[in-house]
Fold each of these.
Amino acid sequence: MSTAHRLLVTLQDSGFAERDTTGARYELGPRAYQLVHSLFQQFDIRRASLPTLKHLAELTGETAVLDVRVGWFAVRMAGVEGWREIHPGAMIGRTVPLAESVEGSAIFARLTEQDQERYRSWRGNDAAALWPTCTVEAPPVTGSHFVLDPARDGRHGTLSHVIVHESKPLASISLEGTGPLHVPNPPRELLAEVAGVVTELDRLVAANPDLANDPFAHVDPDLIQLMPTPDTAILGDPADVS
Amino acid sequence: MTDTALGSADVPGREDASQLIGNKATARVLRLLGQLADGSQSYGVSELSRKLGMTKNMVHRALATLARHGYVIRDSSGSRYSLGPGILQLGAAGLPELNLPELCAQFMRRIRDTTGETVTLAVPSGRTAVTVSGMRGRGTLARSVPIGRVIPLHISPAARAILAYLPDAAITDYLEQPLERFTESTLVEPEEIWREVKSIRERGYATSLGDHWRGTHGAAFPVLASDGYPHGSITVGGPVERLTPQRLDEVLPNVRESMDELNRQSTVYSSSHAAERA
């Protein structure tokens, strides 16, 4: 039996891997996803945002998602799918460098210039080109800004609001879909309703600073690598564990 | 080290030894990861050593391997370990979406085989519960599997097991409208229903009250989402002459064990769909 096969059998026995429906290939098993879920639980903003996400999804019919900043990444930790016939999936777990998604770009835009520079050095590109977005302000709620990437060319639109704690961007709450909110000039009344809902979460975070906890706050963001690299091995070299 | 260095079929005995080493060491690492995922957020080395029955040396080595790849980090105190950001890589392409009937199937089969009775899965839909899958009990006489049956949330164990795990505000909304009565035992008064909800939450399951079909008895357990909302409920039920309350008490521990295991998996997923506002 090859080393790889032995490892796969052990992973399978522990629930970290399983055979796919063809029986010929392996994929991550439920225990692996439980690990991800356990880690999500450590971010209190996730639990706090769930009622807001449900409220937004019910109000608009769009998919409401929470992307949390982890290092230089936006990690989707929660989502509620909308009731519209056609809507995007929640894609929970999706992990993208900050400036490479609308939700992440909204967070990136609220970083200090120093942190934006650090991101560019880390990512190795000069422009750190953000998604083409525009800012909309929802009256009459002062300070309630949204970043909007309208739907076009068969792609859904995204409307994002950044949750900030002590001037640092913590996460973004976004609505994804193709409905009335995702046009260049969304209806003001609907936007105001959405703003009212997200403002409640802003107030909750402001009143409960513990909700902004970051279990990785003590880790240098440059060292947090969430994209697989060619030399990444989940369990390392067998010689290292004996 | 390469496979050859570790051991190969060309070296008698070496392959068995390396196989044992590879499996045991990998299994230790996985057990440690599993422990970090359960319960407390961080652990010290001594604590892990005690809980896992490993020497401190083994724990240190496993932690070192995991830490090298970011799967484990020391907390800010420096003396305790918790899951690290590298874990997020496992879900980076997006976690699989929930297929509730598929997830529940193996547990429903286990419950059916243990009890011999019919097992069904129902999901919430507005003010009702809908039966979406099921496995018929063994023997010629068994409860049916009524796929597509729609029942109000206050009637039958399957529906009440869903109702009880909705948020209180949602239950209040539900009770504001007049409730249908199926039999003289159907609970329709809000106070009665709230008492039953409390009872279900304390027990962890709902039982028959004779409020729907006569002649059957059973118990229904919630299948929960990460936010505590019910994905649905699983009911085991049969003829009351066979599945007496005493018989149900006998089989409940096994059923509960299966449901606990199912809920460990189902709570990975949030209740991901919003209902359209009326």
Note: Residues 230-242 of chain A have pLDDT under 50 and may be disordered.
Amino acid sequence: MSLIAWDNRFSVGVAAVDHEHRELIGLINETHERLKRPDADITVPDFLGEIYTRISAHFALEEKLMRASRYDQYPEHKADHERLLDAIRDIMDDYEDSREFDEGRFAQRLATWFTGHFSTHDARLHHRLD
Amino acid sequence: VIMQPRTDGLPYDTQASVNPDLCTACGICAGACPTATPFRRMTELVAGIDMPELPIREIREHSLAATAKLSGVDRILVYGCQCGINLNGLAETGVGVVTLPCVAALPPSFIDFVVTRRHADGVMLVGCAAGDCYHRLGVEWMEQRLAGERDPYLRGRVPRERIATAWVAPSGGVILARELESFRARLKKMGPYQKGGDRPPPSAPPSPDQSEVKDVSYRLG
């Protein structure tokens, strides 16, 4: 069973952004499954680094679109992006320092953040871009 | 870099294409790429745009090699521009040195990586004198990235007191030496990096709904 299921609320109506939303959800679901296996073929730093890199690129795309359309909520939306990236970096470093990581809890928190962000900031962006 | 229609069938409008007749190999494009991060990942360490002569994978390797030789509580890694002051003798002063075509070829995430992963106690960026960047805007753009005014931002969680800049002319050896010693003294006073202890106050308070990801408790797996 997937951790995050695709919901049409996650669509902003821009093909590139929606494509990346699907990819990110797929990445979270896939790596969550791979990490749970006793013979996991990836490590936690690999997983966290991949998430961090792919999310950084995705946010850059969204921010480029927001700037191009002079979106009025750009500062607030970007601030939310920056907070998540800082939070992921904190978790990456906490793992390196303590080697403790609850992948299930992290994945659930990430899912909660994404569904919340998609259904608030991104939904408003979708409405404005229409 | 020119944006041209997509050729790989993915749902993006354009893709980046480098015009080799205009490219000066400054690497600033790679320094600006959001995927050019040194942190480990599931896929190969390749950025969306990368320098064939100095890919980010090699910058990471050079950074780790340069910092592996350092010791003490005032370990400094210098990222320096090859177009400005000669940095050849700097390694003999007990700092690590990584040379780049332009200081702005360095993705800011490398500064995060070096400081918060404790590979060094501080990072110094050495480039051309202000207003005299060999590649025109490298120094200015790097300063804007550090200040959170130009993407990609240096993450707010990276303590700014562990970063120094020295924009000096090729003849500025004395100035550079002075800046280095001053930075070294400040780092000695600070002691080793402590997550949270070094952290500057957040510029934007987290909204209650969006702080959930950070509030993760851990247990032994």
Note: Residues 13-129 of chain A form a domain with the Four Helix Bundle (Hemerythrin (Met), subunit A) fold (CATH 1.20.120).
Amino acid sequence: MTHGYSRSARAAELLMLGAISAAALALLFEAARVGLWIDELPGPGLYPGALLVLIALLSVILGVDALRTRTQLSVAAASTTGRGRDVAIVAMSLLLIPFLLPLVGFRPLAFVYLLGLMVFLAPSITVAKTLGLSLLASLIAFGAYAFFAAAFRVFLPLGRLTGL
Amino acid sequence: MPDILTTLAPVFSPHLMALLFGAVAVGIFAGALPGISATMGVAMASPLTFAMEPLPGIMMLLGIYCGAIFGGSISAILLGIPGTPGAVATTLDGYPMAQRGEARDAIGIAAVSSFIGGMFSAVALAVLSYPIAAFALAFGPREYLALVVFAMTAIATLSGSSLLRGLLTGAIGMFLATIGIDETFGMSRFHFGSGFLMGGIAFVPAMIGLFAIPEILVAIEQRFKTPPIRPVGGWLPRVRGMSRLLPTQIRSSFIGLLVGVVPGAGADIAAIVSYGQGKTWSRDRAAFGTGHPKGLASAETANNAATGGSLIPLLTLGIPGGAVTAIVLGTFLTHGLQPGPLLMKNNAELVYQIFLAFALANVAMLAIGFATSGVVGKILLVPQNILTPTILVLCMIGAYAMRNNVADVGVMIVVGLFGYLLHKIDYPRAPLALGFILGPMFESELARTLLVVEHWSGLFTPISTVIWILTAGALLLALAAKRMRRAAAETMGREVNATKPQT
């Protein structure tokens, strides 16, 4: 099962497996609380409890395997150096969406995200391009709102602060 | 049997025909774009079906599914990059044909072959479904338990390079499905006082997150330049010499259908197996991989035949065979319909209409594929910095549309980030989806079985024993499929390396 891959990937894998096995063991208590056995029959906690044991076990096995695996810098890792920061920025911004959406509303939030990402990901940017992208972002944000409301009766949220 | 003409007439209504053709067109365009898979397209469209009646909703998803499987061949031929996993084998001969200036012929072969494979599986679906469902009416809890475990062998097939990794993500999916109300006892589990978690994690937003968000983040990370697109060279594809390919297409249709029925073995495996068989049976097998029409026809016929094949266990037994049919199953359940023998018995009209809709989707695919092949090539030129944010916004809409709940958008993002992490460390995501949808079925059938069985030997009835044997066979097939995928990846690496986009 050994194979070579980057140190950062191995570290990420070990971190993930550690978190999963810790969470699985912690959740076992909750499974026991809802009841593993009731009147000599399996209770509501038995099946998820068994799954949690399996998850913890598999995480440990895979973690041991990952520790034994030799690491090497992969070509793919080298070629995306620097872009990891971009992904991290976008990922962090995504986590803000559930909090901002009810406050700001779909249309302004979608416009800001669209424009922000379009500019962020553009290979080169000028004032004229930014204006063009702004127009496109507003068309998509406001157009999508109207289209989904009319065609699919999906009414996207309005913002408590903006009313939009 | 209901009056067939009266039953089928609603499918031909202008509204539903427009919806079907529109869905197929969307599927073709989405499938043609590298980074948008058929699974992603169906996942994103699924929430939109909740405002519809079951038939239009299912028709829309089937249209996108059929269209996307064919659409993947267009970027495979013009770019050398498969738009969907099912188009991997298409690249081997389709792209060399385009490089020789035969792109019109290649797209014509792909369109006609896809149509033949799809129609073959549509006929098989209509002919085989009722006998299978009638047989399944005799199933009890032990048979259903064996059947669910059989379906779960798909987790092995979808596990990629490591079975243990697939088992882990599959088990995580099964556990996530336990959050919320337990069906057997009516008790709420793992909600920790949260009203949102008490309702459980919604399947569709989680699937949009799992399959769409990682692709978006990968697109941001890679930001590769689109390689030169081979010109189509004309408005319509060419269909000359198609009759010589008919024996290949017939054989590939059978292969695609059979592979499609097996849990976890989807369009990509069907195409690879059929391509291999086509090469074996061909007199000029050395020409395969250099732009041989039979190679292209083998792959494209089989990948579309697998779409109908995968619907057979879904409709007759209620068992999804892969991520796409798992999402379609989720849509059925949301409309209060349980696919399986009882659906065939109690909603026969709807089932017949679905059969017809699936056949018409393949007709639409042929027509739209021919009409738009030149235009689709232009779509491939849309810059990543416009496409990626637009897809992200569509995902937000899809996740919210499920229950008009902002928290579902949060679920999509959290699951999506987890899916991205899984992708980066080469852990398969599809088993998580399958575990999520099969987990509740497994738990309820296990509970029912334990009520009737006193000793483990009671698990084995004549029918359930056959299913357990098929399960063992499917596991062996899963191991063989891994080898086939690995061999295909090695071949692809050699053949496609020269055309790989530079980061």
Note: The two ends of chain B are 58 Å apart (CA to CA).
Amino acid sequence: MIIKLLLLLGVVLAALFAYRGAPGALSLATRRLALAGTLVSAAVAIVLPDLVTTVAQSVGVGRGADLVLYGAVIVSIFVWIGLYRRLHDMEQRFVQLNRAIALNQLTDPGSRDVVR
Amino acid sequence: MSGAPTRVSEPDLSPIGTGNVIVIVPVYNESAVIADVVRELRTAFTHVVCVDDGSADTSATLAAQAGATVVRHPTNVGQGAALQTGLTYGLGTSAEYFVTFDADGQHRVADALAMLEVARAGEADIVLGSRFLETGSNVPALRRLVLRAGILFTRATTRLAVTDTHNGLRVMTRHTARQVRLQLNGMAHASEILGGIARARLRYVEVPMTVVYSDYSRSKGQSSMNAVNVVIDLLLARARYAR
């Protein structure tokens, strides 16, 4: 059934996203497009539930609600991975900032925190 | 040597002198003991740098008063990060040997000096302290169990036959210090350094040392539960490293 392939593809892409990909967060534009796409899909699913059912049945899923659930799970995985990556990168930059301040203060004669 | 003018910044304290050695001490809330630790270090080492990792107490001031150079992180970011800041600072000086030393009074200056001599002999890129090379070790039982697990984990992941995988007392050459680039900010730095040694195939030597356990230092030591964090940090780092 097509849905199995689609879901597997989603999982593989999520794994690639987690372990590969350029370091750093996805670009702001990419994230915004993804969010917009998700919101639009949600709106469509709410307004046209019959459309959702039709699409679901075309990929081998009995109920529209089930397709929505599967999609939500895949999207969630991407969201968690994305948040972890952003958090980790932000933490690294935070440490670099602390380090720069720590080392720069030593050579700045005007700073009150210079000790020796 | 006698008759030559003595430079104020480099007192000749030992037969060889420690002018080209820098001691890095990551500090977090150790105001109770840091002054004593620094003073003791200063009896043997000229250059002591304390990296204050955003302590909430007066550790930084006390360390400076005791004669250390103090570098302060504005906020607390972790012992690994503090260690890396110390190494970066040291690389900005002309130091040839880098000693990492704990701030809680558990390490002995005599051990550091002995390890420095091994490093100077030129046989190793990094000298690692070990509590387990000699019998009669005074490590508490539960701590010993957790450390055994750490040793097995390190052997499995790095294939290094190190007897003490979590010892903060090290001496490394400048060349080695340049290659250390600690990414894990918390307590996983010991494992991270070992991983780096394995990857870069650095020559390492273990030298026996004794840890001075006091009620104070025992309460400040890493909780055994923190081993969970260390393992997870390392596994995540391996996953990211795959990128």
Note: The two ends of chain A are 71 Å apart (CA to CA).
